[in-house]
């Protein structure tokens, strides 16, 4: 029996047709993957389903069990059993877990006041069910992003959603949190909940989904059962062309040491080390992959090198042979470092600015005359160049980044740092949320940089990416360097062996 159908959906934003006649359906108790490139229209389609874009702002029909649904807002969609967990989390940090779960539908006592006892009791039951060791009164701000994701799921369960949309739910989860999430998805599937799962991670889709539907440029291009298509066929459906080589690593000839880190330590308290005795050299033309488990200290290391950790470091750092003392990100940029972080909202983008302004944000000095006047022509040229090279999908360079799809926002972050022409480019999860086709473009840009003599450090939780693009892999564990592997010797197993050393 058909549970959910969306028919002939059309949606326009000023200057963009985001959805152009999309049709798709999902059965009861099915996990359906919604696939497509950045900007294909996945999030927009799901926002229509869940009432974020109300009836009247789009054309076409939503049918649940044959009944036409016209939602004026998300509350109405929730009442019809449809919940969405957004790509960008939506919880209110200053409120408790229970307050977030019951926001806007708090249980009331017979006197009309909030029934805290019931609210906390029901929240506790949800937390127990998800094996989450928190108290309903804990503030959401004390939880990690992964834990917040689980609270969103608790909320969806509590409204007894029959249709649950998960928009890139694992982008900030640890490996064990992903497994926990998958357990919950399987349990909900057994209970007959229909789930729509958006992700750019093919491994996950193969692991958890029953079927797929692909969108391209706002149109549906096809559907299939998961076992009936190969991964290459899927990718070709998404990007409209064959991708012959996922990791187009160029031969590189390492040159002089550009970044040299010696005896580098950072303490988090007088007697505990966050980073201990790190030695690391990165040469011109080289990509050094930093591998390790979550919490091994990779992000802390690059943040500290970039002057963004706020903790005192011991040891020496040299750039092109000169000793540097980096205390702030400004010092780091001046010294020739660039850091693309995993969290584009926190440290990457100014959402109220347009694509051009964000792209030139860190390069204003080099784009200005000696008297400090910005060269507008060069600024426009810079923005246009990166939109083309990264294939950023945006109506124009003057579009607010707020209006771009998640993956396209990430491309603007990359453009901003590439534009500084750094001596050392540090990438922390650079392709998170980026579609498979655009990943290849980014790898090619990395090649161009190394061939021009720049050095690259890359952190990625996706081992195939580290293996595919690094010349050397430095493995960290518990704040130390656990070992180093040459490209030729590195395998998933040899990396994992070092990463779990001593654990
Ligand atoms: N609020 C908005 N205003 C203007 N344009 C928008 C808005 N939201 C989305 N768009 C545009 O609609 C198109 C589809 O965006 P959408 O966010 O649905 O893509 P997506 O498939 O979810 O991509 P991603 O994988 O990057 O998250 C894009 O061209 C995007 O720029
Ligand atoms: Mg999206």
From TrEMBL:
Membrane topology, as annotated: Peripheral membrane protein
Coiled coil ranges: none
PROSITE patterns assigned: ABC_TRANSPORTER_1 (PS00211), ABC_TRANSPORTER_2 (PS50893)
Family matches, as InterPro entries: AAA+_ATPase (IPR003593), ABC_carbohydrate_import_ATPase (IPR050107), ABC_transporter-like_ATP-bd (IPR003439), ABC_transporter-like_CS (IPR017871), P-loop_NTPase (IPR027417)
Gene Ontology annotations for the cellular component aspect, listed alphabetically: plasma membrane
One of the protein's GO biological processes: monosaccharide transmembrane transport
Alphabetized UniProt keyword annotations: ATP-binding, Cell membrane, Membrane, Nucleotide-binding, Repeat, Sugar transport, Translocase, Transport
Location within or outside the cell: Cell inner membrane; Cell membrane
GO MF term set: ATP binding; ATP hydrolysis activity
Positions of the ABC transporter domain: 4-242, 259-503
Bilayer-crossing regions: none
Name the record gives this protein: D-ribose transporter ATP-binding protein
Source species of the chain: Tumebacillus flagellatus
């Amino acid at each position: 029996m058909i549970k959910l159908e969306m028919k002939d959906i059309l949606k326009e934003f000023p200057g963009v047709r985001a959805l152009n006649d999309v049709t798709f359906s999902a059965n009861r108790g099915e996990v359906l993957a919604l696939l497509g490139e950045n900007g294909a229209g996945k999030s927009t389609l799901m926002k229509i389903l869940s009432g974020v874009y109300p009836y009247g702002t789009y054309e076409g029909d939503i049918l649940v069990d044959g009944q036409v649904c016209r939602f004026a807002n998300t509350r109405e969609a929730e009442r019809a059993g449809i919940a969405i967990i957004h790509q960008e989390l939506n919880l209110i940090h200053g409120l408790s877990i229970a307050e977030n779960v019951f926001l806007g539908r708090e249980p009331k006592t017979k006197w009309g006041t909030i029934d805290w006892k019931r609210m906390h009791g029901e929240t506790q039951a949800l937390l127990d069910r998800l094996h989450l060791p928190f108290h309903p009164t804990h503030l959401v701000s004390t939880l990690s992003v992964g834990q917040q994701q689980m609270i969103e799921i608790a909320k969806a369960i509590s409204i007894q959603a029959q249709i649950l949309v998960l928009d890139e739910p694992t982008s900030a989860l640890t490996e064990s949190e992903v497994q926990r999430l998958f357990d919950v998805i399987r349990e909900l599937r057994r209970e007959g909940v229909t789930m729509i799962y958006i992700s750019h991670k093919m491994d996950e889709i193969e692991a958890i989904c029953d079927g797929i539907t692909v969108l391209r440029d706002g149109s549906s291009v096809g559907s299939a059962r998961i076992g009936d298509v190969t991964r290459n066929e899927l990718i070709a459906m998404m990007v409209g062309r064959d991708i012959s080589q996922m990791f187009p690593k160029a031969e590189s000839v390492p040159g002089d040491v550009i970044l040299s880190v010696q005896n580098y330590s950072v303490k988090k308290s007088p007697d505990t080390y966050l980073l201990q005795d790190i030695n690391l050299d990165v040469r011109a033309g080289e990509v050094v992959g930093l591998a390790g488990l979550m919490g091994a200290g990779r992000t802390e290391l690059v943040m500290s090198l970039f002057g963004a950790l706020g903790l005192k470091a011991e040891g020496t750092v040299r750039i092109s042979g000169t000793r540097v003392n980096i205390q702030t990100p400004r010092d780091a940029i001046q010294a020739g470092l660039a850091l693309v972080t995993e969290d584009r909202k926190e440290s990457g983008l100014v959402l109220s600015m347009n694509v051009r302004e964000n792209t030139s944000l860190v390069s204003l000095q080099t784009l200005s005359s000696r008297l400090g006047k910005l060269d507008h022509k060069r600024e426009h040229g810079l923005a246009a160049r990166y939109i083309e090279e990264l294939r950023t999908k945006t109506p124009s360079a003057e579009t607010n980044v707020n209006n771009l799809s998640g993956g396209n926002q990430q491309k603007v972050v990359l453009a901003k740092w590439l534009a500084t022409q750094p001596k050392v480019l540090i990438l922390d999860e650079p392709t998170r949320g980026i579609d498979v086709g655009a990943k290849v473009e980014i790898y090619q840009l990395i090649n161009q940089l190394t061939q021009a003599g720049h050095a690259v450090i890359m952190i990625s939780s996706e081992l195939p990416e580290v293996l595919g693009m690094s010349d050397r892999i430095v493995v960290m564990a518990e704040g130390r360097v656990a070992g180093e592997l040459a490209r030729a010797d590195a395998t998933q197993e040899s990396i994992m062996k070092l990463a779990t050393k001593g654990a």
